[in-house]
Structure formats: structure tokens, C-alpha cells
Amino acid sequence: AWLLKYIFLSSAVSVFVFVSLSVVVSVCRCLCLFLSLCFSLNSRVLMFLGQLERLNGEAMLADAEIARQITAKILHLIQTQEKTRKEIMSKGSGGMEVILATLEVKDDWSVCRDYVSLPVPGGGRRVGVLVSKGGTGILLQMLLSASKEWPPSEELMLQLHSVLAKVGPKDRKFGVKARLNGALNVTVNLLKQNLQNPKLLLPCLQVLRVYSSNSVNAVSLGKNGLVELMFKIIGPFSKKNTSLLKVALDTLGALLKSKTNARRAVDRAHVPVLLYIYQDWHRNDTRHRHMLIRKGILGCLKNITNIKLGRRAFLDADGMRILYNTSTECLPVRTLDPLINTSSLIMRKCFPKNRLPLPTIKSVFHHQLPHIPAGGPVAQLYSQPPGVDDVVDESDDNEDAEAENDTENEEDKDLHNDDIETDISKLRPRETPSRPFEELKIYERFFLELSEDFQGFNFDNPKAAVIDPVTAPKSHCSITVPTAQGLPPKYPTTAPLQGERHLAKDARPRPETSSPAPACPLDLDTINITRGQDGRRDHSQSPTHSGAELERDLLQKLEQVSLTRPQGRVGGGRGGEGSRQHRQPPRLTGVVCPRRGGVGEESPVEEGAEEDGDEGAVLEVPDTALLLPLHDPDLYVEMVKSTRSVPQYSQVAYPDYFGHVAPTFREHILERVYGVQRTKIFQDIERLIHPNDILDKVVYDLDIQSPVVDDGESLKFNSQFESGNLRKAIQVRRYEYDLVLNSDINSNHYHQWFYFEVSGMCVGAPYRFNIINCEKSNSQFNYGMQVLMYSVQEAIGGRPRWVRTGADICYYKNHFSRSSIAAGGQKGKSYYTMTFSMTFNHKDDVCYFAYHYPYTYSTLKMHLQKLEALRTPQVYLRQDILCETLGGNGCPLLTITAMPESTSNDQICQFRNRPLVFLSARVHPGETNASWVMKGTLEFLMGTSPLAQSLREAYIFKIVPMLNPDGVVNGNHRCSLSGEDLNRQWQSPSPELHPTIYHTKSLLQYLTAIQRAPLVFCDYHGHSRKKNVFMYGCSLKETVWQTNISATSCDLHEDLGYRTLPKILSQIAPAFSMASCSFVVERSKEATARVVVWREMGVQRSYTMESTLCGCDQGKYKGLQIGTRELEEMGAQFCVALLRLKRLTCPLELRNHAHLLDVESDFIETRCKVTSPSTYVLEDEEHSFMEEVDYSAESGDELEHEPDVADTHDNHLSDSESNSQRDALT
């Protein structure tokens, strides 16, 4: 204490006697810092720092030699004693301030040279302390001052740049500070003067690398000649100064991120130089010790090729071939993957943009609308001047690479979601009805159950009260089963079903004529079922076996479908009209039409038939009645007759005719093979490298009227059947095909749904199929989803089923240009490729591929009739036709509830006053899983179980099972014939353009007007971006919680019952995920069914239920792809949940289930985060792969939106609920 007192008094006296007032303030500050050090540092360092403080105060009088000695001692202690170093560099010690104060006041450069070593002896967090104390500015000022000395001290410059190289990366404003202090030119000039001095060159380059990370600095440094300097430093392979070369390449790469510098490099012909240098390092670095240098060269090329001139220079310098060859040589070495991936990115970016091989991106088919909407994409489509090329822009290659990057921009989106509705007035139900009741009274006829008194009803024959379903008029067009044509006459007898999975994989091409005759169509009226010995089907028997036993039974009960022509229909056969073929062993023979000049097999003649008789076809139809009680091939054909399509389809797809029996084995989510995407991309690049290997042969094309010439060397494709979608097939290599999907009718985009037939395959050949005009920027195909395949040979062998198949599946951006017309005005966009490989097992098989399990409109009509036939007396079922669609198809409306036990007043009153549940599905045609869920719901509701009966007694169900029949029939993915997303028309639907939505909304408005609004409204959808099944609901409170708007507790008052149903489902349905549910209302969803029914009808429990197209990552089905069995189970579980919901509405029961309403704790636990402007999930949907998945072909790639985000689209969002106009545009 006495020592401190003495020092303080001595210092104070000397200060007041010898120094001015300004110096007093400075010294007092230093002494205060010194005193704080006394309590934290050891005595020896304390003494040295005290002496340093005094020297700072006596700067003009102190001896420089003494200062150097003190500094050296402090530096020694810092370097040798870890504890001392930590104490001096800690934020609260004040040691750093003493050192920095010393640097500020000393003007003796020999002293400063020693002081510069003090601030960052250990780097790391201590550098952060230096930055926080203002050390960056002091060091830059010292650099500027030292540069004014001539000649500048080389040792001081070396130390200053060494320290700045460590400080720069820790200071976010380092580049700005350096530019404002004028330090940029100091370092550049020093570099120019010391190009042959590696010792000083290295720290200068390290500092320039940090300078260049600021875009403004990069432009300034480029103007000062730094780009040319870098090319003087880098050079061919050398074992000397590799560290220097690495830093120089990093600096050059940072400079070339500036477009101005990239153009400068191109103008000075540096691109060929970089390619030469890379080749030289690749050739000589045989032991791969300098991979970072090679990667640095590629980084420079990557940045240069971000501009159009750079890409052109790269191609002119044969860069594609150079990088392709070097990358191919690197493939065997796993550690060189960073080089391969970067090379792949550069090559994809520089691959010349190709035109999509179509005459127009508009759909092949056209339907004239009653009138054109005033605005929107349909109006733009119709107003497009004739002769405009809508496939590609005149200048599709932007000057600079697209600024689009899916992954980078997602992080920004997480920070804020501008799509959330913030207007509380729009989050409340409307108080006034939107339409007068007089207009709605016409819908009373769809609610007979609300006034039914059952007087005169015969309870001994309840079916008499059920209104017969209304059917549309039958079509008179000829219908054929396409897979019955051209098949070989003999197949082996089916063998017992094996336990393992059977996949149809490949077969030989069937020779056909080069100019085949048109297929001979068969009238549906000529298709008949050959019955068993008893002459009838037995539907009364319910399945009592499971698994392999059922399928073995299926093998033993085969029925034949005889497709015969009336006499004289084709040729001059003598067979009587309606004659049938004799029963044959299980086999499939085809209708073989006369061939001209063909080398194929002759038409088979059945035993006993006249030589010139009718040519017939016998299809072996597995009797699936035990497994598929709702399927009947005869009935399906009848339903097809009354289905109207724009292309006027005249064929029936084999899978729809035979039906689908869910496989008994599990189908696991496919594990991604490491490097698969890279391999596929390299195969695409080979098209440019080796153009002579490309066949480019069109084998299927809907745009041309004449048939495509068939030489027997290619696969045969077909999609001209209900729900089919394939526009064009091009044979690229012998076993590789590019496939182009058709746009939705009256649209120029929405390419996702596919369903087509393939035949003429070779067994064991590795076929590759590329769907090249996909639009979404990501897909579950990258996360384990597989395509679906149906093999005809497998079906006649007793396994009629869709199976997940395909290997080497990936989804990535390709080189086909997407015009601004198709991309919503955005230029420079590209399409995406979904590719998969397939090996076929059966010779002369016919296989079908689909995006998801097909479910056609005719299938729905068949199922509804079968349900009607299987109805029990306890079920009240009425089927109405709600309206007729634009295409002339009926939109079914079902009413299902329980029949009253009698005509007593109590029974009738209870019957009429049951709460209503309103269900709908399939507003988006491509979401076929929604129909399978609906099928499960309908089968449960019509079932005989006690639960089903209880459910019917609890509710009246109004169901619209298919809101968009036209889209389903015509193979659309998202739109109706109006070219619009019907789930964006609920606010103001047009009765002419959107009849199904208009009348469905009118039904709900009528119920609201008579005070019978539904207790639950749920619209079934499918989701292509996420796994599991989940719900979107509507909540005022949860929407406000996601925004910064202020609201009173009164404003946020709402019943929390909207969470009850999803909570119940999460407890009973293994595929359902509560964590993926969201109850936030967004502006882009304001015209969807869920939001409109909630807002305008006041239905609190208004939901969209999304079912994955891929599989599950939680619960019982974790790691499995979803199938029809799981989807139908989900539909049934939804019914069970409704029954539980009914029981929970009882006050006595509610007390015991209060946890189901604990929304606050639920919401806090899940802590939903925004992943896109339109969806909330618990965490990232997918885990990253070992191989980085790069979906883009550019260095900065696309703002993303799901089918709809306006990305401006909302891509992670529900496919079902994304922004209509932008859907799938990114």
C-alpha cells in the first residue's frame, strides 16, 4: 500500500510540474489502467507495465532503449507464461489498453517494431479483444505512418502485415477501415516493390486476401493492377513457395468475385492461363499433396465463369474437355472429391443452354374456355402474340450468372417471414354473409337428410330410400386395352409367389414394322368377363387370410377377359358375335393387328378357331375380389365409357384395369449412393464432349400426328390413357432416354405428374430415364423417394401391384433453358432433371411408370358404385352429382350417416341434428395420395364395424371425393381445364370457370346460413417436399405470435379446440407428425379452402391434411416409403379421430383430456421456425448427405419457392397450398 501511494504521489507531482494539462489527462488514464492491473497480474508484469505507463506519459523524454528493453521483457513473459498471457489479454485486465496506448504515442519506429509483436502473440480470442479495444484502427494508422518513411522499415512492415493478417478476419469492418485509412494502396505498392521477396510477400498477400473480401475494395484493388500482379505470382507446378502460391490463389479468387475484375481477367486472356496452370499442377501433383492449390485455381475459374464472357472464354479454351478429363482421372481418389465437385459445378455452369425439344411449352391439348379471366397466367397465355417463341428467350444467357441459391437464401428466409398475415381484422370471421340466402336456397336439395322424416320408409328394405347415383352419358368412342396389343402368344404358367420382392426389370425389343398399321380399337361393349365354373363372382366372402396366403389364393383364382370383335368388324371371320375364347392356362396374349412388312411374330390363332376367323385377345385377369372388394374390371370399363377427356382417350391402362394389391413387403426409403449425382452430371457433360455418341432419336411425340418410325431398336412409349402424362421421349444413347412431360391444359408449366407405359425392353440392360423439364428446385427424389412401376407380367403372375423401383435416383438442375414466359418473367432460369435407372427382369414385358400411385376418375366412379352395392341397411348413403365440370364430367357429392332406428320423433330429431363433417380431396390432380386417403375414409365409413356405426351415428358426412375431375382425367398436375389452381379460387370462384369450387363453397355457405356450419372441414392433399402426414390449420393467436404486431388479450381470445384433432391423430395414427403441423395464416394462402372456410364460414376446425409422397421419418413407419395400405389406414384413422373428438366434446370427458388443448406448452416445445415464406417445421426436413447435394448449376442459384412460393414462391410449403401463379416456377 505504501508503495502504491508513493508511486501515485510521485507520478502526480512529476506530471503537474513538467507536463501540460492535456498530458495530465492522458497520464491519469494510463495510471488508472495501471491500478486496475495491480489486482489481477503478477508483480513482475505489473512492474513492467507500470514502467511502460510512465514512459507513455513521458513520451518526449523517455529513452527509446529503455522502452525496447521493457517491451522485450513483457513479450518474453507473455510468450512463456500462459497464465500471464491470458491475464493481460482478458477483457477486464486493461493490459491490452496499455499496449495500444503505447503504440499510439510512440513515434520511434524501432520501438514500435517491438510493440507490434505484443497485441496478438497467441491469436484466436485474444485478437477479438484487440479488435474490441480499437486496435484495428491503431494498427492501420501505424501502417500508413510507417509507409511515409523512406525507405520504409521492412521489419516493421512485415510485423504490421503479420498482425493485420490475424486481425482482419476477426474485424467485420476491417475492409472499410482499411479503405478509409488509405491502407489499400500502401499494401499494393509494397507488394509491387517486393515481388521477389517471399518473406514480405506472404503477409502482404494475406492482408490483401482480407481486403478483397469486401466487394468495393476488390474493385478498387483491381483498378490498381492487383489482378495482373496475382498472375505474375502464380505459375506452373513448383515445389517452392507453395504456401505463398496458395494465398495468392485465394486472393485472386476473392478479387474475381467482382464482375469487373472477372471481365478484366477475361480481356487479358487469363482464362487459358488458369486452365494451363491447372493442367500442369494436375499432371505433376501425382501424390496429391497440393490439393488446396489445385482447388484454388478451380475457385478462380469458378468466379470468372459467373459472367457470360467468362463462360464463353472457358468454352473457347476447351475448358470443358480439360476439366472433364482431369476430373475423370480424379474419380478413383476419394480425397479429391472437392476438386471433382468444383469442376462439376464449373462445367454445369458453362454447359451451353439448350432449347427444350418442344415447339411450344403450352400443353399439347387445348380446351376452349367459356370466357378468359381478366388477369393472371391464363389471360397472358391467350394474349400471347402468334409466332412468339415461348420455349426459350432470344438472349437466355444472362450477362451474369443467376443470383439464385436455394440453400443460401433459405437461411435468410428463416429470419423473417413476410408472408404471415398481420392484419387482425382479416384473421377474424366475417360477421355478414357473403351471399343472400335466396341465392343459396337452391342447394337445399343436397341436404335432404336435414328434413327427412322417413314417413312411408320401409325399414325392411332400407336401400329403397337411397337415391341412385347419377351418371354421365356414355361415350361412344372405341376403347382398347393398350397392353393387349403386340404381346407374345405364350407365357409360362404362373409359379407360386415367392416371399421376396419381385420387380419387372427388362426385356428384348419387340420388332415392329417401320410403319405400323394403326391399332385396331375394340369397343368396350365387346369386352366380357369369362366367369368361373359357377358363373359368378363371390363378393360376399371377406378376406380371412393375409400376406402370402392371400396372394397364393389369388394365383389359384384367375379369370379371363375375352376381347372379341363382332363378326365383320375386322376381316371376314365366321365366328359368331360375342363368341368367347376357351379358358386358357394363365397367360396374356395380345390383340395383334395386321402388320405391313414386319418381321415380328405372326398373329396367334387360338386352337379350334377358323383360319380366317376373328383375331382375339385373352387377358388373364387375376381375381382380386378377395383382396380388392371395390375393384371390378368389367365395371371399370363401363366407367371409362362415361368419362370425358380433352384428348378423347380410347385406351385403358392395364394397372387401372387389373387393379392394385398393396405388397406385403416393406419398401424402405432408398439410401442415396455416394457420388450418384456427380456421375449423372458427368454423363450429361459427355453429351457435349462426345456429341457423336448421341443418337437424339425421337421415339414418342404427341406433337406430331403421324406415328414415329419404329426400327425395333428402341423402347416404345405410350401415355394416351386416362391420367397419362408423357409428351415426348427421345433416345439419347442405346439405353438412355430423355422424357418431356406435358404442361397442364391451358397452362405452360406445372410439370411433375407422370404416368406412362413402356414396352419392348431388353432383359438385364441398364436403362436410364431422364425427365428433363421438372420445375421445382428440390424434390423428395433426393431424399429416398422412388418412382412406381407396374409390370404386366408380374400382374398375370399373381402380383398385380405397383412397386417402388429405380436406382441411382437424383434430382438436379440441368442445361435446358426455361423461358421468362414459363418462369413468370424471370430470365436465366433452367429446368431440373429427375433421373433414375432401371433394369427389367421380364422379356417382352409391358411396364407402367408413375409419379405416385395412380387413382383415376373412372376408378373413383367404380369405387363409389361398389360401395353402393355393398351398403348395409344401417348406412344412409346418398350420391348426388354436385355439378358438371368444364369437361362435361360429373362431380360426385356423397352424404353418409347412420339410418335412424325408427320413425319416432326422438330418432328423427337425433338424425337431423347430428353435427356435420365436410371432407374434400383431389383438388390437385397430381396428388393422388389424397384419393387413397379418401378411399380409406370412405371404406371405413361404409364398414360394418361398431366404430364405423358409432361414427355414422355421431355425424352427417358431406364428402366431395374429387374436386378436380377434369384435371385428373387429362393428366394435369395442379390445374383444372381453366389453367388455374382451383385451391386459389375459393375467395371468388367463377361458376363458369371453377364450377366445382363455386358449388362446394355454396354448400358450405348454405350450411352457415341455416346455422349448421360443419364442426370439421378437412381438405385432403399431398406434399412432395416433406415426409409424414400432417395438418395445416388456422389460428389467430399462433399467427400473431409469429409476427411483431401488438395485440391485446381480447384480440387474441380464441378457442384452442383447433389443435385437438391433430393432437388425437398424432396419438393414434403412426404416420402422423404433430411436429410438422402449422396453424399460421399466411397471405399467400388467403384464397385456399382451409383459410376461406375458417374466415368466411367461421369453422374453427378447418384443415388441410397433407400426406407425404415419399415416406416417414418418425414413428412406426420410420424409414419406409408410404404405400396405399398406409394411406388408406390414414383415412381410416382420421375417422377414428373424429369419433374421439366427438367424445371429447362432452364436458365430462373433456376434463379427463385437458392435455389435448394445451396449446401454449405445445407451441413452446415445438418452437416452430420459418423455413420458407409459407411453412413452419420443427427443424430441417432432411439430413445432409456425405456428398454435398448441389441443386444448382450456378455459383449463386435461385430464390426458391415450392410449387408455389413466389420465390418468390413457396417451395417448402405445402404443395397443396402454395402460391397459385408461382407454383412450381422455381
UniProtKB/TrEMBL annotation:
CDD domains: M14_Nna1. Pfam families: Pepdidase_M14_N (PF18027), Peptidase_M14 (PF00246), TPR_CCP1_N (PF25571). PROSITE patterns: PEPTIDASE_M14. It is an enzyme of class 3 (hydrolase). Residues 1216-1226 have a biased composition (Polar residues). The active site is at 1106 (proton donor/acceptor). Residues 413-432, 1202-1215 have a biased composition (Basic and acidic residues). Its EC number is 3.4.17.24. It catalyses: (L-glutamyl)(n+1)-gamma-L-glutamyl-L-glutamyl-[protein] + H2O = (L-glutamyl)(n)-gamma-L-glutamyl-L-glutamyl-[protein] + L-glutamate; C-terminal L-alpha-aminoacyl-L-glutamyl-L-glutamyl-[tubulin] + H2O = C-terminal L-alpha-aminoacyl-L-glutamyl-[tubulin] + L-glutamate. Residues 569-578 have a biased composition (Gly residues). It is found in: Cytoplasm, Cytosol; Mitochondrion; Nucleus. The keyword Isomerase does not apply. Keywords: Carboxypeptidase, Cytoplasm, Hydrolase, Membrane, Metal-binding, Metalloprotease, Mitochondrion, Nucleus, Protease, Transmembrane, Transmembrane helix, Zinc. Its main location: cytoplasm. Residues 853-1142 form the Peptidase M14 domain. SUPFAM superfamilies: ARM repeat (SSF48371), Zn-dependent exopeptidases (SSF53187). Coiled coil: none annotated. Residues 376-432, 505-525, 560-615, 1187-1226 are annotated as: Disordered. The chain crosses the membrane at residues 6-24. Residues 390-412, 603-615, 1187-1201 have a biased composition (Acidic residues). GO terms for biological process: chordate embryonic development; proteolysis; T cell differentiation in thymus. It comes from the Eukaryota. Its cofactor is Zn(2+). Belongs to the peptidase M14 family. This is Cytosolic carboxypeptidase 1. It comes from Esox lucius (Northern pike).
